[in-house]
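Q: what sequence does this backbone want?
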């Protein structure tokens, strides 16, 4: 009986050693194969497309609002002459024409620019708005 146990133990050790060696060889190959359903790729693509269309919440500076359309256009042109690198947006909310400027992702960025603009446009103030994605440098 002891001889049978010894033989089984030897066989078990040999089998486990060969299994360990094969796992080590597989780890050393450095290749990983990902198998996934085609639906996963389609869902990720749909998710990215939906997020690209979603509005981005941020801040703008409202430099003018009033019922005179020509005055609003003058103020917008004046702003663009002084700050050519900052976008300006004209929006009509009955009965007022609004001029909002900038695309700021954080309130701090918008506040810093507000302090700059207030010298030229003293009635300007900070508003939360849907913004365009700011261009990266």
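A:
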């Amino acid at each position: 009986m002891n001889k049978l146990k010894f033989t089984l133990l030897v066989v078990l050790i040999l089998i486990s050693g060969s299994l360990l060696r094969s796992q080590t060889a597989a780890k050393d190959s450095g290749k990983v194969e990902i198998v996934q359903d085609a639906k996963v790729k389609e869902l990720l693509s749909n998710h990215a497309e939906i997020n690209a269309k979603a509005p981005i919440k941020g801040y703008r500076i409202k430099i003018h609002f009033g019922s005179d359309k020509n005055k609003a256009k003058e103020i917008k042109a004046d702003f663009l002459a002084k700050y050519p690198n900052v976008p300006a947006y004209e929006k009509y909310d009955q009965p007022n024409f609004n001029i909002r400027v900038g695309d700021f992702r954080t309130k701090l960025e918008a506040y810093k620019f507000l302090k700059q603009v207030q010298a030229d446009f003293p009635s300007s103030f900070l508003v939360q708005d849907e913004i365009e994605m700011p261009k990266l440098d």
